[in-house]
Write a structure and sequence with these properties.
Jelly Rolls; 28 strands; binds 2-(3,6-dihydroxyphenyl)acetic acid; binds fe (ii) ion; oxidoreductase; iron; RmlC-like_jellyroll
Length: about 450
């Protein structure tokens, strides 16, 4: 879209030739901090002072509140933003259903929940002309989007920008994990760029569209139907560590204004599992100023401050939690987002890779780059694995053999970046995911020999 992306008041010029998305992504300015009451205006004076809804908002803008939590949720967890926009969001025609493509939503009923260990290769190349939305492909999930509980795991592959179309998800927030190719996200709040190794979060209901910084893009999405992701409590770790709040970056305001009717935009709305569309006579990315804490953000996973043992034993991976979506039971997450970032292993008299285990929580894992220290082969960047509630898993045979004989010198694990969506409910896979499984995944645990000498 040739929309005029205006210069933000913070002094960061974003004049650009259409299509020069890489340059735009490199020069982006951000606001720092997780959960802050941020504010930003693309035109000086656009943000009202001292009140949210003056009788007439500045510069002839419309004031509009976007609530991501109920009005009455505790202040510490309340999420809402005020948007000052050229047209109110209410000015739109009726939405009508369109095909859901390869997108699926909870409740997942295409198959019964399966106790087997499952693994997938990366998605194939997308068909020509596939944009990010069309390239969303659901692997599975749990809960019920209409009850605002649970989550879905999606993969995406794309080779075209979203042109003249915008997406918003009423069902949940979207945690986007690029694995190949960078993304430029144009949102109601401004622009964000996310390359592999970074993650982007689009809050529930926020309109955005995705352009590509490379020829193709591939990655993962956790659609979280539950409470918005927040930083985990740190307990005895102290006041710092894991993902530091200031490393989360929100966009500065930037808006599109093509004039009414000049360039129609298709707005696709995901609502209770179905896609609905309406054609607007203007871009809904027309927010000139905003303030609040229901905002998109990006985070560079390499900024994660990794904690681990400096004595013995392999700590549980909860120590690697980047973001958590709590459920109504304290300590029991609807979903945790966990990263396995480069780190040193120094444990003495310790089997250092992930241990053999069975877990009441269900674990979907993906790989952004390199390899993962529990799997010698077969777990590929862009691929994934699912170890559902109580399924027995852990190091494959080759990893077990190596690690139980390794000399325990300090060892730097820096050849990969893996992550996990860990959820309190079993993940049911879609039929398309069931038809795309790696064969014989169970065999990675064959040949673990009997050593018992008692
Ligand atoms: O299964 C996995 O690889 C994830 C995982 C990693 C770890 O370090 C400990 C437990 C666990 O489930
Ligand atoms: Fe596990």
């Amino acid at each position: 879209m040739s929309g005029d992306v205006r210069k933000p008041a913070e002094g960061h010029v974003r004049k650009h030739a259409e299509g020069d998305v890489r340059k735009q992504a490199e020069g982006l300015a951000y606001l720092s901090g997780f959960g802050n009451e941020h504010h930003s205006e693309a035109v000086p004076g656009a943000l009202p002072i001292g009140r949210n809804a003056p009788q007439r908002a500045p510069l002839g803008l419309y004031a509009e509140q976007l609530s991501g939590t109920a009005f009455t949720e505790p202040r510490a967890h309340n999420r809402r933003s005020w948007l000052y926009r050229i047209r109110p969001s209410a000015a739109h025609p009726e939405f009508t259903r369109v095909d859901n493509g390869t997108l699926r939503t909870a409740p997942f009923t295409e198959a019964v929940p399966d106790p087997n260990r499952r693994r997938w290769n990366p998605l194939p190349e997308p068909a020509p002309g596939t944009d990010w939305l069309a390239g969303l492909w659901t692997l599975g999930g749990n809960g019920d989007a209409t009850q605002r509980t649970g989550m879905a795991v999606h993969l995406y592959h794309a080779n075209s920008p979203m042109t003249d179309r915008v997406f918003s998800d009423a069902d949940g927030e979207l945690l986007i994990v690029p694995e190949h190719g960078g993304l430029l996200l144009r949102s109601e709040f401004g622009l964000l760029a996310a390359a592999p190794g970074e993650v982007a979060l689009i809050p529930r209901g926020v309109r955005f569209r995705v352009e590509l910084l490379d020829e193709t893009a591939r990655g993962y999405v956790c659609e979280n139907y539950g409470a918005p992701f927040r930083l985990p409590d740190l307990g005895p770790i102290g006041a710092n560590g894991l993902a530091n709040a200031r490393d989360f970056r929100a966009p500065v305001a930037a808006y599109e204004d093509d004039g009414d009717g000049a360039r129609p935009v298709e707005v696709v709305n995901k609502f209770c599992g179905n896609l609905w569309t309406a054609t607007y006579d203007h871009s809904p990315l027309d927010v000139v100023a905003w303030h609040g804490n229901h905002v998109p953000y990006v985070y560079d996973l390499r900024r994660f401050n990794v904690m681990g043992t400096i004595s013995y034993d392999h700590p549980d991976p909860s120590i690697f939690t980047v973001l958590t979506s709590p459920s109504d039971t304290p300590g029991l997450a609807g979903v945790d987002f966990v990263v396995f970032a480069p780190r040193w292993l120094v444990g003495e008299d310790t089997f250092r890779p992930p241990y053999f285990h069975r877990n009441v929580m269900s674990e979907y894992m993906g790989l952004i780059e390199g390899a993962y220290d529990a799997k010698a082969s077969g777990f590929l960047p862009g691929g994934g694995s699912l170890h559902n509630m109580m399924s027995a898993h852990g190091p494959d045979r080759e990893t077990y053999d190596k690690a139980s004989a390794a000399e325990l010198v300090p060892q730097r694990v820096d050849d990969g970046l893996a992550f996990m969506f860990e959820t309190r409910w079993p993940v049911t896979v879609t039929s398309q995911a069931a038809g795309h499984l790696q064969r014989a995944y169970d065999d990675v645990w064959l040949g673990l020999e009997r050593h018992f000498s008692g």
